[in-house]
Each structure stands twice: as C-alpha cells, then as structure tokens.
Design a protein that fits this description.
signal-anchor, glycoprotein, EC 2.1.1.-, 735 residues, alpha/beta, Rossmann fold, seven-stranded mixed β-sheet, globular
Length: 735
C-alpha cells in the first residue's frame, strides 16, 4: 500500500532548550575544583586522628547481594508505557490513488451492497483486516486553503482537482474554474440569482433574523452555498450529500470552510439526535419524499425541533411553470406533490406558504392535537416508547417519533429554547429537565467555567489558536457538553462536535440545544468525511475512552487522514496514554510535545500538542492520463448496454458502448426510468449520472477506441485493469 516515499520538508536542525557550555567555562570550573581539593587536603594535613586514617583507609564495596536496613530508593517509572520494548512501527505513505480515500464510503466496496433505496451509498466500513496502515497523501501541489471569509468564494484547484461541476453546473452558476483556482459565485439549481438572494426570499416568508432559527440541515447540499451564505446571518448549517463517483461536492464544501458530512437518507437514521434542527432544507435534492410510506419525511420530522420549518424548492414545487423544462408530464408532477402533501398532513405539519419556487411547512410545537388526529389518519402511527436519539446504524422507521409530553396546547415539547446568542450559555432544556443522567445545571455551569480556562491555556501554548484565520474547520472528537466549541464562538471557526457512541451518556442533544452542531461517531471506524477536512483536531480523554476497544494506531491514522497538512492537534489524557500516543505520533512524522496540565505538573492528565508536517504525493507524469482513463472506464461500465451493472466491473466492449445511447433503468425500487437523454425524476446523483450517460452515448467509435487504449496503458502501469474500481484521485475531463 505504501508506494514510494514522498519528499518531506524537515528542518536541518532544531533549537534546544539547553545552552551549550563553552570550553573556557569548563576549564575554569576544573581549575576551581582542583584548587578546592588541594586546599582541603592541606587544611586537614596536620589534623591526624580519624581524618588522616580515613583518607588512607581502604573502604570495601558492599557485595552485590548485600542488604541494609535503610530505606531503598526507587528509581523506576510508575507511569511508563514500556516504550523501550515496543517494536518500531513504520507508517509509509499510501499510494497516490488514495488521495481522496474515504474508507466507509469506498466505491469498490459499495458495489457489493443493495442499490435499492441507495443502500449501497450508506456507510460500509472495511473489515479489520482491510484497514489501511498507511498515511493518506495530499495531492501533488496541495496548498493551504484560502482564509475565511475568502474561502467561501475561492478554493485551490490543486486541492480538489475536479472540473466536472464547472461543466455540469455551468448554467446554474455553482462553480467556475479560473486558472489555478475555483470560484463559487453562490448560484444553485433553484437560485440562479445567488444564494443570498434565495435566502432573502426565504426570509420574507419566515423570520431568519430574530435568533429563533440557529441550526439548520441541508439535504443533498451540492457545494453547500446555502449553508455558506447562512453563516453571515448567524445560522449554522449541517450540510450533507452522498459520496459522488466523480464530483466531490461535499469535498468542495469543506474546502470552502463550510460544515458538511458525507451522508444519504436511505435505510438508516441520520447520525443526529431528535429535535436537533430549527430548519430543514431541500433545494432540488431529488429525494423521493413521498415514497416508502413517507420514511424520509418521517426522519426529517425526527430531527426537526418542535415548531421547526421544512423548506422545499425544486420539483415538484411550481410545476405548472417548469414542467416542460423538467421534461415531465403535468400529471406526474401533480401526483408527486399530492403525495408529499399527504405525508406532511399525516405528520401533523402545517403548510405555511407556497410562493413562486418555495414551499414551507411547520412542525407542531407539541403532539396534543396530533394524537387526536391519529384517530383519523392512523398512518404513520406514533412509535412505541424507545430512544429517539439513538441514531448510529439505526434503521429508519415508518412511525412518527412522539414529542415529549406537555400539559397545555401552547407548551413547547421538550422546553423552550432561548434565542441566539443567549442560547449558547443558557441551561439547555435537556439538562434543566434532568433527562441526561449525571448532568444537572451545576454540572453544566462548572463545565462552562472549566472550558473557558482550558481554551485560554490552549491559546497560551499554541498562540496560533488565537490568530484569526489560522484555523477554520475544527473537530472535537469527544465533546461532552460542547464547552470547547462554545469558548471558540467569537473566533472565525466552526466546530464539528462528536459524541462517541461509546460515551457513558449521550449529550449530543444538549450540544444542539446550545446552538452548536455535531454528529455521532465510533472512532473504531473512519469518519464520513474526506481526507484533509480539518485544520485542527481536539481530543479530550479519547484514548482512555477507547482503551481495550480498538487499536490506538487506527484512531491516530484516521486523525492523520482527516487533518490537513500543517494542521494542528491538541490531545489531553492520562499521561500513560499520551506517552503511547507520542510514540505513534513520532512514527507518523508529526512534530509533537507533551506539556503539563493547566493546573500544574502534579496532575496526571497531560496535554499533547502536535503538528502534521507538510508532504504530498509525488509528481507523476502519467497520473493525469490514468485518472482520465479510470474516469472513462467507470462511466463506460456504468452505462454499458443501457443497464446499471449489478456486478463488479467486468471487461467492457468499448466499441459497442461508443455507438449506443446510454440510459439507465432503476428496477423494483420506485424510481422512474431514465430513458435516452431525457433527465427524469431521480434521487441524489442519478440525474447527473444520466446526463453523463447521454454524453457518453453520443461519443463516436473513435472515442471508444481511446477508451481501450487508455485502459491498456493503465493495465500496463498498474498490472490490474480492475484495480481502479475504488480509485478516487484527481479526475479531469476536458469536455
């Protein structure tokens, strides 16, 4: 897996904390010692008695097995990690084809899973023996991202070398390629006038300014322009989209400095607690909301806060105006909208408005009336009592998550939240109501004071933490109540708060009630994000939590994967654990040091500060050619004979493909057929893939021969024509 070692930038020498003694100082010291000895000998020379006898006496050494009654000094270390006996471990660079490796969304592995409802696009992590033990490289030429807020509009091409969207979305103004960089004008499929203008349109329908809306979720986010432009309005958005075969939309979002995760609504719950978001959004996300007994809207209902809003733009909204452009019949679009309307009514949502291209529904503040309505609309039924916050590999349900009980119709289930920014430090309702075991109001206040002190100490050790723009994307791997993120709120950063599923208490709901965002995660597995996502990673007592659960080196390799070159790490843990971490950190070629606790050296808990050194994959003259070959091979195979392949990629008859019009039929899963070059209703990436198929079908047999030649070159270089099935490297196409 290693490949050749790329060049590292390493200083020739490092400063030492100790001054080097000068030669004349040593000589002077020797003379003084000699004079002192001679003076002492002369002074005692005439004294006789015991002194002279002692000087001339021979004092025998104690035998090796001698014992004495006095106390014995113990020079052994009582908190060593036995690193002297540990084998030296090397972690070589991974091959350059892994520059965009996402272990749990690996495309080769996903082919083994069911395509019904896009299950194959969900998390499917490698088995223990499949986990890579190498360091994922950055692409050659990688550069430090633009600082926020410039990064909202600009990203280096070398960091995310994908031009596809500049062609696919040229008319919609998503992204432009300009020399060595991408520019994001803020456009979108349903907001060609820009995200700001689109958000203004929403703001005329619901109040986005009074602080009542703080957290939002964007399903099928594209390059996350909606979330990017909401930040200036103090609204923090969790954007997600599935791993694209070629287009890397979530990667663009992260490169812009916008919160995002790889994700899809398929068969599992989204990894967020119930009642987390004030607002949910879908702009032409192509999710079949009305199908599967409304399961996808039921999941949105679970994560939406009482009184929260669901915003839908794009098909089928305003179909009377757009039906021709969408190339769908009036009857089809009307049926889809009626299906959505029926599901929302069954969820007891109220439709507030439908104006132009935007429709908005509101979730009820409680379920008092809804329970009465369920005597008429029996489906979906209310779910039986179980944990609504359990959302790690938890199956979707087609029952309605009941809201906490209230005594009056005007009460808000779960408690009323303060408006932002008071929400950040107010006692969260989940805490004040005693629903989090072991956490009360005093615990919350103490945690707030504690993290104020800790973050101040961090900034004194790493002064770059206080420099505006040095860090943008920050990960807190074990967040508890979100105190670390809360104390960075005045800085131009955002923090992805993670509550490990192995934690003693589930506090992610508290984090959302503070107006922060986060996700569930098991650090025994990889995170659903791209390499080089974060500028800074913070881990509090993480290795104590995972001791004897999974391998420390696997967690640290994952941290290395998702950290940018020259990114920083802050880890606090028991000294025994940090000594082990320090050993692996050195093997990973991080610069690191252990420092004392903020309360002094007598505390067993220590801190480790580290920096990931800059290095990239080596330059390769053939890299671009093979990237192009792989992309075209993947496209050709996906659309071979007009069918979506269920098998892994066999040999392809490129001549046959070149002369055909590619199309796809999705069978037995409720999706419409893609026929010829008609872009019909689809879900997530299917529409884009259909357009690719159309272009592929128009290519000539000459281009098909190019496929064959490129494949031959790739096979000659790599030795396996199918080895690229999971390759996610730079994919460049000049259309």
């Amino acid at each position: 897996m290693g490949g050749q070692n790329p060049p590292y930038h390493t200083p020739l020498s490092k400063p030492t904390l100790l001054r080097r003694p000068r030669l004349y100082s040593l000589a002077a010291l020797a003379v003084l010692c000699s004079l002192s000895y001679l003076l002492g000998a002369w002074h005692n020379g005439g004294g006789g008695g015991a002194s002279s006898n002692l000087l001339g006496a021979v004092i025998p050494c104690l035998p090796a097995n001698a014992t004495t009654a006095g106390p014995r000094l113990d020079f052994s270390s009582h908190h060593s990690a036995y690193i002297t006996t540990a084998a030296v471990r090397e972690y070589p660079p991974c091959d350059a084809r892994y520059v965009e490796y996402t272990p749990c969304e690996d495309q080769r592995r996903s082919l083994k899973f069911d395509r019904n409802r896009l299950i194959y696009r969900e998390r499917h992590c490698p088995e223990k023996g499949e986990v890579l033990k190498c360091r994922v490289p950055a692409p050659h030429g990688y550069r430090t991202p633009f600082r926020w807020p410039a990064s909202r509009d600009l990203a280096w091409y070398a960091n995310v070398p994908h031009k596809e969207l500049t062609v696919e979305k040229a008319v919609q103004n998503w992204i432009r390629f300009e020399g060595d960089r991408f520019r994001f004008p803020g456009g979108g499929t349903m907001f060609p006038n820009g995200a700001d203008s689109y958000i203004d349109d929403i703001g005329r329908l619901i109040n986005l300014k009074d602080g009542s809306i703080r957290t939002a979720i964007d399903t099928g986010c594209g390059v996350a322009s909606w979330g990017a432009y909401l930040m200036s309005r103090n609204i923090l958005t969790m954007s997600f989209a599935p791993r694209d075969t070629h287009e890397a939309q979530v990667q663009f979002a992260l490169e812009r400095g916008v919160p995002a995760l790889i994700g899809v609504i398929a068969s599992k719950r989204l990894p967020y607690p119930s009642r987390a978001f004030d607002m949910a959004h879908c702009s032409r996300c192509l999710i079949p909301w009305g199908q599967y007994d409304g399961a996808y809207l039921i999941e949105v209902d679970r994560v939406l806060r009482p009184g929260g809003y669901w915003i839908l733009s794009g098909p089928p909204i305003n179909w009377r105006k757009y039906w021709k452009g969408w190339e769908r019949s009036k009857e089809d679009l009307n049926a889809e909208q009626m299906q959505i309307e029926n599901v929302t009514r069954s969820l007891c949502w109220k439709k507030l408005v439908e104006k132009n291209d935007i429709a908005i529904w509101q979730k009820p503040y409680n379920h008092l009336k809804c329970k009465k309505l369920k005597t008429v609309h029996k489906k979906p039924a209310l779910c039986p009592a179980r944990d609504p916050d359990k959302a790690w590999y938890t199956n979707l349900e087609t029952c309605l998550t009941p809201l906490p009980e209230v005594s009056a119709s005007e009460d808000i289930s779960g408690g009323k939240l303060e408006k932002w920014p008071k929400r950040l430090n107010a006692i969260p309702p989940r805490v004040s109501r005693g629903t989090i075991k072991g956490v009360n109001s005093e615990t919350f206040r103490h945690d707030t004071r504690l993290w104020k002190k800790r973050v101040s100490y961090y900034k004194s050790v790493n002064n770059q933490l206080g420099q505006a723009g040095r860090y943008r994307n920050i990960l807190d791997m074990n967040s508890f109540l979100g105190g670390f993120a809360a104390n960075l709120i005045e800085d131009p950063v955002w923090v992805m708060n993670v509550v490990p599923i192995e934690a003693k208490v589930n506090t992610l709901g508290v984090i959302y009630e503070r107006g922060l965002i986060g996700t569930y995660q098991s650090w025994c597995e990889a995170m659903s994000t791209y390499p080089r996502t974060y500028d800074l990673i913070h881990a509090d007592s993480l290795f104590t939590l995972y001791k004897d659960r999974c391998e420390m080196e696997d967690i640290l390799l994952e941290m290395d994967r998702i950290l940018r070159p020259e990114g920083s790490l802050i880890m606090r843990d028991d000294v025994d654990e940090l000594v082990k971490v320090k050993k692996i950190a050195d093997d990973l070629n991080w610069e690191s040091r252990i420092v004392d606790h903020e309360d002094g050296p007598l505390e067993r808990e220590k801190l480790l500060f580290a920096v990931k050194l800059y290095w990239t994959a080596p330059a390769s003259s053939g890299g671009l050619l093979f990237s192009l070959a792989l992309k075209q091979i993947q496209e050709a195979d996906e659309f071979r004979d007009g069918r979506y392949r269920e098998q892994q990629r066999p040999d392809v008859d490129f001549e046959d493909i070149g002369g055909r019009t590619a199309h796809r039929k999705i069978e037995d899963d409720g999706f419409d057929e893609f026929g010829g070059c008609d872009l019909r209703r689809g879900y997530a990436g299917f529409g884009r893939l259909s357009r690719r198929g159309c272009r592929l079908g128009r290519r000539s047999a000459t281009r098909a021969r190019d496929f064959r030649e490129l494949r031959a070159l790739f096979t000659e270089e790599v030795g396996d024509s199918n080895a690229g099935g999971f390759y996610n490297g730079p994919l460049i196409v000049d259309e």
